[in-house]
Amino acid sequence: MTDRETIESMLYELATPQKMGSFFVNNATADFLLIRPSGNPISAKGFEEMMSSGDVVQEKAEITKIHKFEFLSADVAMCVFTLGAKFSYKGTPNDDLPTVTSIFKKINGIWKIHWMQRSTGDSDLSLWD
Question: Which domain of life is it from (predicted)?
Answer without folding.
Answer: Bacteria
